[in-house]
């Protein structure tokens, strides 16, 4: 019985040695092992880079939109919320869908009471945001916070956990500008 086992292990050892010496298709096997994690990492890097670039575009748009209130341009022209949203749209239209951009403009008496935190989005059964956004244009001396909020689509997958997901395949992106309205 032990002789049969010894001969089986002997043949198995010879096969393993022969397999380890073979170099045919080694590159293909190595590529098959390395390619999926490499491509997944590359896609994750591209996704995060595009997200950060879009975040910066949205932040710049929030600063520019805030400047309209800070200098009194929006107040003097009696800009409505829909008009203001259409004024902001050209600032972000290269990367964002203007109809999905949410604008929240709030007025406070001082900086200590100002709230610039990210709002909690509420959704209906169709997955649409149901929040009501405020639009207070303020007067000279008021502290204002302008928030531009957008649901950025993300690719889920092995590295989809890098960005905080809202559960609907999107991540909340926000640009904020806080300032005191100048006398105009």
Provide a descriptive summary of the structure in words.
The protein is α+β, with helices and mostly antiparallel strands and 184 residues long. A 3-stranded antiparallel beta sheet has the order 1-2-3. The longest helix has 45 residues, at 26-70. The mean pLDDT is 86. It has helices at 2-21, 26-70, 73-76, 81-92; strands at residues 102-108, 143-153, 170-180.
What oligomerization state is this entry in? single chain
**What is the approximate shape?**
rod-shaped
Question: How would you characterize the largest beta sheet?
Answer: 3 strands, antiparallel
The structure class reads alpha+beta
Helix and strand sequence: HHHHEEE
Radius of gyration: 28 Å
Physical arrangement of strands within the biggest beta sheet:
1-2-3
Strand percentage: 15-25%
- Percent range for helical residues? 40-55%
Supply the number of helical segments.
4
**Uncertain segments:** none
Termini separation comes to 102 Å
Number of domains: 1
Averaged pLDDT: 86
For the secondary structure, the number of strands is: 3
Please tag this protein with its features:
alpha+beta, 184 residues, 44% helix, 3-stranded antiparallel beta sheet
Summarize the structure.
This protein has about 180 residues and is an alpha+beta fold. Helices cover about 45% and strands about 15% of the residues.
Strands, helices and their partners?
Layout: H1 2-21, H2 26-70, H3 73-76, H4 81-92, E1 102-108, E2 143-153, E3 170-180
Antiparallel strand pairs: 1-2, 2-3
């Amino acid at each position: 019985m032990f002789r049969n086992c010894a001969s089986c292990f002997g043949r198995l050892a010879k096969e393993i040695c022969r397999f380890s010496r073979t170099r045919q298709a080694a590159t293909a096997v190595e590529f098959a092992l390395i390619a999926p994690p490499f491509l997944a990492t590359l896609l994750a890097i591209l996704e995060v880079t595009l997200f950060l670039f879009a975040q910066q575009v949205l932040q710049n748009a929030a600063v520019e939109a805030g400047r309209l209130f800070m200098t009194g341009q929006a107040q003097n022209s009696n800009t409505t919320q829909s008009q203001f949203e259409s004024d902001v749209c050209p600032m972000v239209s290269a990367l964002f869908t203007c109809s999905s951009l949410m604008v929240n403009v709030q007025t406070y008496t001082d900086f200590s009471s100002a709230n610039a935190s990210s709002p909690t989005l509420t959704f209906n059964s169709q997955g649409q945001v149901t929040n009501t956004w405020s639009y207070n244009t303020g007067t000279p001396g008021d502290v204002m916070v302008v928030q531009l909020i957008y649901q950025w689509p993300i690719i889920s997958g092995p590295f989809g956990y890098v960005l905080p997901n809202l559960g609907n395949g999107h991540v909340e992106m926000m640009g904020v500008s806080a300032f005191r309205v100048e006398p105009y």
